[in-house]
Amino acid sequence: MVHVVLYEPDIPGNTGNVGRSCVATGSTLHLVGRLGFSLDDSYIKRSGLDYWQHVQLVRHADWDAFLRSIPEDSELFFFSKKADTLYWNAKFVENSYLVFGCETAGLPPAIMKRYAESLFKIPMQKESVRSLNLSTSVGVVLYEALRQTGGVPDGRIAAETA
């Protein structure tokens, strides 16, 4: 299993889309800190479609509460356009935690500094766009993590019939 962690997401549609990806992959979605919307918001349910009820969702009041809730030896991977290392160089393991920042502010500088050795970016054409959409970024990294760790349990069958 892979865990997706959204730190203080602002846009309900992105969180809904990420939730749908988590359902599709059997991943747990962790929402950390202040949300820029209500989980009862119709936008989150619209983007998550009728899958939102199936999301394995864990809420954490803040970053420290999140850290206290996970095993001490957990592997955390952070993603930011400000990172130097490409996500292709990450060595994901089972039960990896993929941490993404807020759409408008990214990850806090203190977190990026503390976990600098575990900070990765998705490559983009220079001077093309400011950033990728959060749900797109999660999808790119989530499927690479699943590829490295053995994938979705029935993914082989799904890929053959798609």
Could you walk me through the main structural features you see in this protein, from its secondary elements to its overall organization?
The chain has 162 residues and is α/β, with parallel strands linked by helices. It is 35% helix and 17% strand. The chain contains six helices and seven strands; from the N terminus they run E-H-E-H-E-H-E-E-E-H-E-H-H. The protein has helices at residues 12-25, 42-48, 63-69, 109-114, 134-149, 155-161; strands at residues 3-7, 28-32, 56-60, 76-79, 85-86, 97-100, 119-121. Strands 3-2-1-6-4-7-5 form a seven-stranded parallel sheet. The longest helix has 16 residues, at 134-149. The model is unreliable at 156-162 (pLDDT under 50).
